[in-house]
Design a protein that fits this description.
The complex is a heterodimer of chains A (about 325) and B (about 425). Chain A is an all-alpha fold and about 325 residues long. Chain A contains 14 helices and two strands, in the order H-H-H-H-E-H-E-H-H-H-H-H-H-H-H-H. Chain B has 18 helices and no strands. Classes of the chains: A mainly alpha (about 325), B mainly alpha (about 425).
């Protein structure tokens, strides 16, 4: 019984939150990795693209709520999501036309594009803060739990409880659907194949009659969708605050690099590696070990390896270790 | 021709600051001047790394914060009870931590077979971590429980704060050495992410390790290298002189203190500028640019690219550390919560790119110009909003919202400035020769 109690604690505080967080990171890292694979630069504006998409979704959600539209037990934000994606897609397409296209035509070095994306980051950062401000915004509604601690305890009779938040369930299911759709698109459709061809060899793709501008437009739309979905899921699960989204840049890039930049499968794996290690290293294990260790060995301290403020250090350490020992990432990434 | 244009740029900046003095107040003009000087020093450091060597460092914030830490550790008085409670134990624990990392490195070098190597490294690190925490945690607890409302840290050396400037540079150089050893072999975007991560970690350490510099409880009332306003206001001689100039003593003392700072900062800026300018023209500077433009060719000529990169990375970071110590001295306090990457990393990058990467005078110009904009965009857009919304009612929701968001116009403006410069004048205002 003690073993099961310990397992329940582990699931409730470590595995379930880490899985949801991992799915959010994976979606964010997919966007970064696609841009890197096809447009060949690290997009520093990605965190702020996520913030922009989420902001539009939050605004539309509020509008829906004021009109009394709801999605039953599910959060209204899911209804607003398509509008958020559309607005973000319009924004990034405009950015591409107005900013990136010029440098692409010049065949500028990747590092120049990174600096350009820093400029875009500043602008988006400013726009989001001007429109919605810097404060925390909560926008989740509907049922809070799929099952709560009390229900779980009543159903199983265990001492420890476990809860599954609706947002966590939605995160994992949505991420699964999105990833399947993305891989189907990349591998099976004509546009997806032309995108991969363009990524492999730009000139050859051009010779085979692939329109590069169309490929680039499609990739930006996909990235906008991924970024908005990742941002909204993160915001539903925690809360929406522009600065937090800017800070997500580090774990997202860590995930993409750990998995191998430019490799979509790697981005997903990287997201979960980073999320699990972050949560496990900053979790106070005492509560689990209390059940699993014999009484004489019961830990006297919290058994927390690092305090939660050091979670950036965790993604960073994984990043450095992977880069030193396996520079192309866990899955083979690309290097330009 | 170019020469006159460059001089005109600097004259224009000076004019902007003087206009600020006449229109707003001399106090804010001097504030802009002082922070402009510090920004110029930071921009010099980044320009050394990016402009000379093409190293993409986005961890400027971390080095600036280390400089700030140096200011605290040098100038505050030591807390003797805290030292006797656990100061030496903390130092011992840190030494053990360094020893564990050293032992891991030796294991990595000495053991060649993959599996034993991994096992040895993991076990040294794993056991070492618990040993380190077992030594450190009680000592930290003992130190942090001493008078936590005011101290709770080990304090500093009680030396004059101006010594913290070179020491801040040394702190940053030490951190840069460690980072450079691990990350400089990486490609430019990887180096960028690695430095971004390091700077976040440095800030996390400053926020959490209360025994070091009180963490988010902040250290205030730091020592000053210049006289205090309050002392000036009490000195009869000063009051006499101020009234001779026709300024009231309170304003005069504030201006006098800021002028002193401006003088000190100018001395530092000029020394550094002369040094980097000389090195740029020396064979060393030519070698650096050769490496930047073609690493393979430079390596073929027998230049050790990795070592030269490490060298310039350390030098540039040290300059950022000096600037960080100067800034904390000017503020008179260390507030780890106020360090944000947009302000302390990316803004410095905007300065370098706009001023002209690869040109030291460009970096200095960019430092002044961008800092001026950063400060002045807010009042300017406030004025603009007032003008635009003049027809609206006082409590109009849109008007109130626009008034509130005026502060964030500066981010938008900085982004636009950076994008416009990159598009239409990619080599900056004063291009590299």
């Amino acid at each position: 019984m003690d073993f099961i109690n310990g397992l329940v604690v582990l699931l409730n505080f470590v595995l379930i939150p880490a899985t949801a967080y991992g799915a959010q990171l994976a979606l964010g890292a997919l966007g970064v990795t696609l841009i890197y694979g096809i447009l060949r630069f690290s997009n520093f504006a990605h965190g702020d693209t996520m913030a922009f998409g989420t902001m539009i979704t939050v605004l539309v959600t509020w509008w829906f709520q004021s009109m009394g539209i709801s999605f039953g037990p599910l959060p209204t934000a899911l209804l607003a999501l398509p509008l958020g994606i559309a607005a973000t897609a319009a924004l990034v397409l405009m950015t591409d036309r107005g900013v990136y296209q010029f440098y692409r035509a010049q065949k500028a070095k990747p590092v120049i594009l990174v600096i350009v994306s820093m400029g875009v980051m500043f602008v988006m950062n400013g726009v989001v803060r001007i429109i919605i401000g810097v404060d925390d915004q909560r926008f989740s509604d509907g049922e809070r739990f799929i099952f709560s601690v009390r229900e779980f305890k009543a159903a199983t009779g265990l001492r420890e409880g476990m809860a599954l938040k609706t947002t966590q369930g939605i995160t994992v299911i949505t991420a699964l659907i999105v990833v399947i759709a993305l891989f189907w698109f990349l591998n099976k459709t004509r546009t997806g194949k032309s995108m991969r061809a363009y990524a492999d060899n730009e000139d050859l793709a051009l010779l085979s009659g692939i329109n590069p501008e169309r490929v680039v437009a499609v990739i930006w739309i996909i990235v906008a969708a991924l970024a908005t979905i990742a941002g909204v899921l993160y915001g539903l699960d925690k809360s929406f605050k522009p600065f937090t989204y800017f800070q997500l840049l580090l774990p997202i890039f860590a995930s993409a690099i750990v998995g191998g930049l430019g490799n979509p499968l790697g981005a997903i794996a990287g997201g979960f590696v980073v999320a699990y290690s972050e949560v496990m290293i900053t979790y106070a294990w005492k509560k689990v070990l209390k059940y699993w260790m014999p009484e004489s060995l019961e830990p006297s301290t919290l058994m927390q390896l690092l305090s939660t403020e050091y979670k950036f250090a965790v993604s960073f350490m994984i990043l450095i270790v992977v880069l030193l020992f396996r520079p192309t990432g866990l899955f083979k990434g690309k290097a330009y | 021709m170019d020469q006159t244009r460059n001089i005109l740029y600097f004259v224009a900046i000076a004019a902007l600051i003087i206009i600020t003095g006449m229109v707003q107040s001399w106090n804010s003009a001097l504030l802009i001047l002082n922070m402009g000087l510090i920004s110029a020093v930071m921009a010099l450091g980044v320009n050394l790394q990016w402009g000379f060597a093409g190293l993409f460092n986005v961890g400027v914030m971390g080095f600036v914060a280390l400089g700030g830490l140096a200011a605290v550790l040098v100038s505050t008085d030591p807390v003797s009870e805290a030292w006797s409670a656990g100061g030496l134990r903390i130092l011992f624990a840190l030494a053990v931590g360094a020893g564990i990392i050293g032992a891991t490195t030796i294991a990595y070098r000495r053991i060649t077979a993959t599996r034993p190597r991994v096992i040895a490294m993991v076990s040294i690190l794993g056991l070492g971590f618990f040993l380190y925490r077992a030594l450190l945690d009680p000592a930290v607890q003992a130190v942090e429980s001493i008078n936590p409302a005011l101290q709770g840290n080990l304090g500093g050396l009680g030396l004059p704060i101006i010594l913290a400037w070179p020491i801040g540079g040394l702190f940053a150089a030490g951190a840069a050495w460690i980072i450079g050893k691990a990350a400089l072999g990486l490609r430019s975007d990887y180096l960028a992410i690695a430095t971004l991560g390091i700077s976040e970690i440095i800030i996390a350490i400053l926020k959490n390790e209360d025994w070091l510099a009180r963490g988010v409880k902040n250290v205030i009332g730091l020592d000053r290298p210049v006289p205090k306003e309050i002392d000036l206001q009490e000195s009869a001689q000063f009051i006499e002189r101020a009234s001779g100039l026709g300024i009231d003593p309170v304003t005069a003392s504030a201006l006098f203190v800021k002028l002193n700072y401006a003088l000190l900062f100018s001395v530092v800026l000029i020394i550094l500028l002369v040094m980097v300018q000389l090195s740029l023209k020396s064979p060393w500077g030519r070698m650096m640019r050769a490496i930047r433009d073609n690493e393979t060719a430079a390596a073929a000529m027998g230049k050790n690219v990795t070592n030269r990169h490490l060298q310039i990375f350390i030098l540039g970071s040290a300059i950022c550390g000096i600037a960080g110590a100067m800034m904390t001295t000017l503020d008179g306090q260390l507030t780890p919560g106020s360090y944000q990457p947009l302000r302390f990393t990316f803004l410095i990058w905007v300065m370098v790119i706009v001023g002209g990467s690869g040109n030291n005078f460009g970096a200095v110009l960019g430092g002044f110009l961008i800092w001026f904009l950063w400060v002045q965009v807010e009042p300017m857009s406030q004025y603009l909003v007032t003008l635009l919304t003049a027809g609206m009612a006082e409590d109009n929701a849109l008007r109130l919202h626009m008034m509130e968001s005026v502060a964030y116009m500066r981010l938008l403006t900085m982004g636009l400035v950076l994008l416009l410069v990159l598009r239409f004048s990619p080599r900056g205002l004063i291009p590299e020769k």
